[in-house]
Amino acid sequence: MSEPDPQNMPASAYDMSHAEERDERRTLAIMVDNEPGVLARVVGLFAARGYNIESLTVAEVDETRHRSRITIVTSGTPHTLEQIEAQLLRLIPVGKVTDITNSKRGVERELALFKVSGSGEKRVEALRIAEIFRARVIDTTNASFIFELTGASDKIDQFRELMRPLGLVELSRTGVLSIKRGAEKG
Amino acid sequence: MTGVIEKEEKAEAMTGADIVIRALKEQGVDTIFGYPGGAVLPIYDAIYQSGAGDIRHILVRHEQGAGHAAEGYARSTGKCGVALVTSGPGATNMVTPIADAMMDSIPMVVLTGQVPSHLIGTDAFQECDTVGITRCCAKHNYLVLDTDDLARTIHEAFYVATSGRPGPVVIDIPKDIQFAKGLYQTRQSVHLPTYRPQTEPNLTKIEAAVRLMKAAKRPVFYTGGGVINSGDAASTALRKLQALTGFPVTSTLMGLGAFPATHKDWLGMLGMHGSYEANNAMHDCDLMICVGARFDDRVTGRIDAFSPGSKKIHIDIDPSSINKTVRVDLPIIADCAKALNALIETWQKDNSAPPSLVAWQQEIALWRGRKCFTYQEDKQLIKPQYAIERLYELTKSRNTYITTEVGQHQMWAAQHYHFDEPNRWMTSGGLGTMGYGLPAAIGVQVAHPDALVIDIAGEASVQMVMQEMSTAVQHDLPIKIFILNNEWMGMVRQWQQLLHGERYSHSYSDALPDFVKLAEAYGGMGLLCNHPGDLDAQIEAMIAYNGPVIFDCRVTKDENCLPMIPSGAAHNQMILGEIVGDEIDEKGKALV
């Protein structure tokens, strides 16, 4: 949370710039105690206060201390985003909330599985594009492929658009995972 | 910190039910408000066999009563309230008090029974998902699935409920866990690495605050329930800081009593039904020092016209309160008492003289001169405001505690009853729960057996919890239920007059009981008063009676609660006189 510098304050809080009031997309890493119901607390908070969830992933990352990492992609005005962080920290099992937005100081990756069915030219073309995207074939039949693709969300979106005319049947994606750049812990 | 398992417990494990009683004793609990049922029978058995000799159990008539009684107990003592109810309907009946305690930051631990753990999820008899239902309206909750975890969970619950911004914590205990044997752990076992409330103020911020305070020409303290929650030290510090600075003080509904209402710099309550002087001071101030309040919509009125020219300092223990609705210039996250004491120390170290407040005080005196709480007197009929005034005059020199229900009578009580000490005023502010006051009075009376405890009630609200009169009689709790009976859901009627063209849809309390007979039927005393000339004598009779009293005070039926900031209006647009009907614009009508 950024707080205003008291030395350099406008005459009133209403004089503060509201040009910032456009929606921004943020990726939050939420470290929680892996206790029963903790995900429901986090998701319930977003639902109850009308915050957006664009994607959500969760898994235990520290088995000895039973800590899970929840990655949520959300959007809102800077004011809303500040409230989301503060409200999350009010939850007893939430230890830390870090903003790891891709453009700023983090890397984001997503994993997706694509089922593409087809024959002849389309099948060859699908395989060729998959090679360009460095997607792996993890299952194949005479009439279908399953591709595994890892990358930033927009790369997965692009691949989906290219596969659509080539027989895209089904898509499953993990949602965004993120981690902070550099040597320090996030 | 690791769990400390006491040596004697290694030899002999205790049942879960015994662990509950022992943990409550270790937490210093002397009173439980509760209602038994299938899923808490083992705990009730432990109370019976007792073990629980020094814990008093107050049997209520409806679980909601247990919750509000625990709140009243907590609010009047500063300690944690405790309620014990069964699974299913016992737990769902507790939801209102839990939500109420959450909104008003009241420390409370609620123990609920649950069906045996192997039946959870099978739609068993009296099963409900208690942790699911209470997750969003409690500060925290637990489902205990191992008897060895039970004691630590209870200790954690008390810690969470009473520390930081206080609130309700629910512990759901399946019946088999209550029967099973487990090891007891002391309160040293509490281990909550992710929960670290910030209580110490940042000194740089304190210094910045004092610089703003030393420069202010039109300052005002806006204080709230956080000052009460922070304990006597906070009220003492507030008075001391006010004495040093000479700044005028207003307070929210929840904060009444932290600053003495008889003080010359007291502005009265602010907000929708607050005083003209308080709201105008808020609107026109150049520095607002908000201490333990949260800019509730009932306080701010129209947000974009709220105190437009002021710098705002906000002291709050809950970081999520900062900038939630109103942007502030200088947030200080800390316990109120600690922040106020730090301000006192820094103010005293700084030798510079602050500007004179005389002009500001004169302006305030002009607003005060409007005497906004004046009402048309009546020689034949009792005006509700007059009833509260007389009640105040006849009880102010006694050891008195006031609770209220919700509605017009609540606002009149806040306007016309004056509090000089904290913890004397128990009301449902955030959730606005009709039916809070009677059970809360029971909780207060249990904690203060020799005090005069009065529930200022409306005839509509009190009927939501009327059955708790029986609780008062059973436990020899001489509470006084002072009903301002105008035969209407007064605040609903007022809003229908203001907003809905005087179409009084279902707001008339038809078929009212004879409250005097009702009191007698319960084994208490009933008093009826319908003439101003009889009021003093009847109030004296009420006070003199050593037992529960229902006082049916028949007041004028169509009195409106004024002054009022209509919804969607600013602080300086109060209705002072009579309601005409065009005060609220279309946008305001959509607000609550």
Could you please describe the fold and organization of this structure?
The complex is a heterodimer of chains A (186) and B (592). Chain A has helices at residues 38-48, 78-90, 120-132, 153-163; strands at 24-33, 55-62, 67-76, 94-99, 106-117, 136-141, 144-151, 168-173, 177-180. Chain A has 186 residues and is α+β, with helices and mostly antiparallel strands. Chain A folds into 2 domains: 22-99, ACT domain (Alpha-Beta Plaits); 106-179, ACT-like. Chain A, domain 2 (Alpha-Beta Plaits), CATH 3.30.70.1150. In chain A, strands 5, 6, 7, 8 and 9 form a 5-stranded antiparallel sheet that branches. A 4-stranded antiparallel sheet of chain A has the order 2-3-1-4, with helices on one face. The two termini of chain A are 16 Å apart. Chain B has 592 residues and is α/β, with parallel strands linked by helices. Chain B is built from 25 helices and 20 strands. In chain B, the strands form 4 sheets. Chain B has a 6-stranded parallel sheet with strand order 3-2-4-5-7-6, sandwiched between helices. A 6-stranded parallel sheet of chain B has the order 11-10-9-12-13-14, with helices on both faces. Chain B has a 6-stranded parallel sheet with strand order 16-15-17-18-20-19, sandwiched between helices. Mean pLDDT of chain B is 95; it is low at 1-9. Classes of the chains: A alpha+beta (186), B alpha/beta (592).
Question: What is this structure's SSE topology?
Answer:
The complex is a heterodimer of chains A (186) and B (592).
Chain A: E1 24-33, H1 38-48, E2 55-62, E3 67-76, H2 78-90, E4 94-99, E5 106-117, H3 120-132, E6 136-141, E7 144-151, H4 153-163, E8 168-173, E9 177-180
Antiparallel strand pairs in A: 1-3, 1-4, 2-3, 5-7, 5-8, 5-9, 6-7
Chain B: H1 7-11, E1 14-15, H2 16-26, E2 31-34, H3 41-49, E3 56-59, H4 63-77, E4 81-85, H5 89-93, H6 95-104, E5 108-114, H7 130-134, E6 140-143, H8 147-162, E7 168-174, H9 175-179, E8 181-182, H10 203-215, E9 219-223, H11 225-229, H12 232-245, E10 249-251, E11 266-269, H13 276-284, E12 287-291, H14 297-300, E13 311-316, E14 330-333, H15 336-349, H16 358-368, H17 384-395, E15 400-404, H18 408-416, E16 425-426, H19 437-447, E17 452-458, H20 459-462, H21 468-474, E18 480-485, H22 490-499, H23 515-522, E19 525-529, H24 532-544, E20 549-554, H25 586-589
Parallel strand pairs in B: 2-3, 2-4, 4-5, 5-7, 6-7, 9-10, 9-12, 10-11, 12-13, 13-14, 15-16, 15-17, 17-18, 18-20, 19-20
Antiparallel strand pairs in B: 1-8
Helix pairs in contact in B: 2-3, 2-8, 4-6, 4-19, 10-15, 12-15, 13-16, 17-18, 17-24
